[in-house]
Design brief:
Elements: H1 6-15, H2 23-43, E1 53-57, E2 63-65, H3 66-82, E3 85-90, E4 97-98, H4 99-103, E5 110-118, E6 129-137, H5 148-151, E7 160-166, E8 170-175, E9 180-186, E10 191-196, E11 207-209, H6 220-230, E12 241-242, H7 248-258, E13 261-264, H8 277-290, E14 294-296, E15 316-319, H9 321-332, H10 338-348
Helix pairs in contact: 2-3, 9-10
This protein binds 2,5-anhydro-1,6-di-O-phosphono-D-glucitol and manganese (II) ion (MN) (2 copies).
Length: 349
């Protein structure tokens, strides 16, 4: 067999930590199992009665699709049955679930936040969608109810994060803080196989991803930053390409592989940005930093934000290291014109 399976990879990683009890390994395997089930459903979506709207709106006031509900149920079930979690929170539920409160069983020490189906408005058009997950270790005493301190952990305290992209192939990409690895699902054997070991994001790219229909709402530094990308300058291949799929996972994954930057700033409708800190921004920020890139809100690194609310939103600027650094230069040098800001940054780096 040419490839190492995800299961084999996880086992080898675990053996490097002799004291590890295998709980995180089991948890990751539960996620991979749910991902395979969602993959199966996504791939036959046009045939099964699974396309379209579910009916009610979710906690974000957004329309739920049938696949949102299906994916949520699969990930919830797999993580509950695994027995290694004490808390589960999903985009699709207003409240997180303290498993000790709801089942009386203490469960494990891990807390998982997830977006079961990201980009769900794209499902009916056969455009890639994804799942994003973030794993924390509880800081309060095990066996007791969860404490406020468990919920106030910053993204830096994540012990693992990752995403699944249901695209032209299905991939699972994750980190436990020891680099980033990507696995492609071989549907013929039902296994994720290591296809992208030790992933690094190129330090610079020529692609930017933003929903420009919100342009009028953007802060001046965002407008100037975008204008910089559009200016003609052959010395650094400008104008850059604009690529926006509208599924965060898919836009992020392309930029991770090819280099680029994704920007979802504050808008009039979403004054704190649209994307959710706990199950969209934080997990991808952990991945991108582990892959050598950066993720910021415009005020601070995403991973340093102290959470206040399970569903809080944040502006997100994420991608290649030097592109995000250039963005920060635009924020810092508000008085400069864009070319001066870029020139001073690029000549220093
Ligand atoms: P979700 O489907 O989980 O609600 O997430 C949708 C998100 C994200 O995937 C994407 O980047 C963004 O919404 C697109 O928003 P716009 O349609 O406003 O561009
Ligand atoms: Mn999402
Ligand atoms: Mn979603």
């Amino acid at each position: 067999m040419a490839f190492q399976t995800l299961e084999q990879f996880i086992t080898v990683q675990q053996s490097r930590f002799p004291k590890a009890k295998g709980e995180l390994s089991r948890l990751l395997q539960a996620i991979s199992l749910a991902a395979k089930i969602v993959h199966r459903e996504v791939n036959k979506a046009g045939l099964a009665d699974i396309l379209g709207k579910y009916g009610p709106f979710n906690v974000q006031g957004e329309e739920q699709q049938k696949l949102d509900v299906f994916a949520d149920r699969e990930f919830m079930d797999a993580l509950k049955k695994g027995g290694d979690c004490c808390y589960l929170a999903s985009e699709e539920h207003e409240q997180g679930i303290d498993l000790m409160k709801s089942t009386g069983y203490a469960g494990g020490k891990y807390m998982v936040y997830f977006d079961p189906l990201d980009g769900s408005s794209n499902i009916d058009a056969n455009v890639p969608v994804g799942t994003i997950f973030s794993v924390y270790r509880r800081v309060s005493h095990e066996q007791s109810l969860l404490h406020e301190s468990d919920f106030l952990q910053t993204g830096r305290q994540q012990v693992a994060s990752g995403y699944v992209i249901y695209g032209s192939s299905t991939m699972l990409v994750y980190t436990t803080g020891q680099g980033v690895n990507g696995f492609t699902l071989d549907p013929s054997i039902g296994e994720f196989c290591l296809s992208h070991p030790n992933l690094f994001i190129p330090v610079w790219g020529t692609t930017y991803s933003v929903n420009e229909s919100n342009y009028q709402d953007f802060a001046p530094e965002i407008k100037r930053f975008l204008q910089y990308f559009k200016n003609n300058d052959e010395s650094d291949q400008r104008p850059f390409s604009s690529r926006y799929i509208g599924s965060l996972v898919a836009d992020f994954h392309r930029n991770l592989i090819q280099g680029g930057i994704f920007i979802y700033p504050a808008t009039r409708r979403y004054t704190e940005g649209k994307l959710r800190l706990m199950y969209e921004a934080n997990p991808l920020a952990f991945i991108v930093e582990q892959a050598g890139g950066l993720a910021v809100s415009g005020r601070e690194p995403i991973l340093d934000i102290l959470p206040q609310d399970l569903h809080q939103r944040t502006p997100l600027i994420i991608g290649s290291r030097d592109m995000v650094s250039l963005f920060e230069q635009f924020v810092a040098d508000q008085a400069l014109n864009p070319l001066d800001a870029a020139t001073s940054f690029l000549s220093e780096s």
